[in-house]
């Protein structure tokens, strides 16, 4: 994805970008009349509050001193996952490597907490920071989730450990220089942004996501900002949202003064509509499968490829972007064509051992692991009896592992796990023969 680099001067141009994540119409825009705002309501810390708390915590962390070179704040009005938006390089590489490396909620795994405040508060329930030590050439990742801070002391996250979270090869020292001066707080950032974006559109298309950032670009739709600040408003990555959606990007100087505005649209997934980029379908292709058992439980583990197919069905990429869990349906069908009974998941949250995912004698369920074997999500009956996922929204990407759980009394020979689509805008097909 082509990125917009912002330095001292912002150039606003008419650009048409046809890339893996969609077609964008990026045009100059001017402030429009805003609807009356509701009372400002906070939910989570501001940028400087979160950063101050984090700095106090990492001051004595081994390997420092630590200098900030990247931050992202996410305020999403409904369940949101950055994994669904995708990443600039291989989606599966970033989701698997970074997700495995950092346990806990990060941009690369899990569902973001829902934001119950107002965008003009400048607060967010989720903040993520990256720091660099010039003396040790190590990086440090820190998250603040509603005031709960988690520090991930790791080595160089861009190469040594296989986690490459940005689409532009970052030189941390250069990014540190961009954030070395005084930093305005997020209420100032959003005040400038909301004076420029179409607030009426934001209100009419709610829920939306407000993303505040500076530093290297983390995923498409959120461009890198070089010595500047960015406030982005979009809908991709929200549960229940697909198709063509609006996006607004406001760029600001480090003092919070207005720098530039881009308005456009993007497609949130690979579409089955012939008039847009990303036209075709998703194919979930099984790779290796293994079967294991314990007690009265059978577990069949299959590694999947999330492929993109052209309209004629031929695969164009084995690293599909934009596919969310809620966009897929799953059915276990026996050799006679009958659907077998789905039950509640036995492990609908993170587990330390797969033996905690025991079978129910009356039916089947499944759960998803990352390439490295970390629990991602599970699929089964909800409390109200409908089929669904325990995590509101996560991405499905290549090299994830789908684990079918069934009672050992069942014979799975000839059975098929069939995959379909729950949305009209994207087609999903696939099957796993057991």
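Sequence proposed for the structure above (434 residues):
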């Amino acid at each position: 994805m082509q990125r917009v680099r912002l330095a001292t001067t912002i150039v606003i141009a008419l650009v048409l970008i046809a890339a893996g994540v969609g077609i964008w119409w990026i045009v100059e825009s001017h402030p429009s009349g805003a609807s009356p705002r509701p009372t400002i309501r906070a939910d989570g810390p501001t940028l400087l509050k979160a950063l101050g708390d984090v700095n106090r915590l990492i001051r004595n962390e081994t390997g420092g001193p630590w200098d900030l070179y990247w931050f992202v704040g996410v305020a999403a009005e409904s369940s949101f996952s950055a994994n669904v938006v995708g990443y600039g390089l291989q989606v599966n590489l970033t989701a698997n490597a970074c997700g495995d490396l950092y346990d806990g909620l990060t941009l690369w795994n899990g569902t973001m907490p829902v934001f119950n405040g107002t965008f003009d508060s400048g607060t967010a329930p989720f903040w993520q920071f990256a720091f660099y030590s010039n003396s040790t050439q190590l990086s440090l990742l820190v998250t603040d989730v509603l005031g709960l801070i988690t520090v991930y002391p790791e080595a160089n996250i861009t190469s040594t450990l296989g986690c490459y979270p940005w689409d532009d090869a970052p030189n941390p020292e250069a990014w540190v220089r961009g954030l070395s001066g005084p930093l305005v707080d997020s209420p100032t950032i959003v005040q400038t942004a909301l004076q420029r974006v179409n607030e009426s559109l934001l209100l009419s298309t709610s829920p939306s996501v407000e993303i505040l950032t500076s530093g290297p670009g983390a995923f498409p739709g959120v461009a890198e900002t070089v010595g500047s600040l960015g406030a982005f408003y979009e809908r991709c990555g929200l549960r229940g949202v697909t198709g063509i959606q609006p996006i607004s990007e406001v760029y600001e100087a480090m003092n919070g003064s207005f720098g530039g505005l881009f308005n456009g649209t993007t497609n949130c997934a690979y579409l089955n509509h012939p008039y847009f980029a990303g036209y075709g379908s998703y194919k979930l292709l099984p790779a290796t499968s293994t079967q294991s058992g314990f007690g009265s439980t059978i577990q069949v583990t299959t590694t999947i490829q999330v492929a993109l197919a052209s309209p004629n069905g031929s695969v164009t990429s084995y690293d599909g972007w934009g596919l969310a869990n809620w966009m897929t349906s799953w059915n276990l069908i026996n050799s006679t064509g009958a659907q077998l009974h789905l039950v509640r998941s036995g492990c609908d949250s993170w587990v330390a051992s797969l033996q905690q995912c025991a079978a129910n004698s009356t039916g089947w369920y499944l759960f998803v692991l990352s390439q490295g074997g970390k629990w991602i999500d599970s699929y089964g009956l909800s409390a109200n009896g409908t089929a669904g996922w325990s995590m509101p929204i996560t991405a499905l990407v290549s090299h994830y592992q789908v684990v079918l759980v069934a009672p050992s009394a069942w014979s799975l020979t000839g059975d098929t796990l069939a995959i379909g689509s729950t949305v009209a805008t994207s087609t999903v097909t696939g099957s796993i023969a057991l």
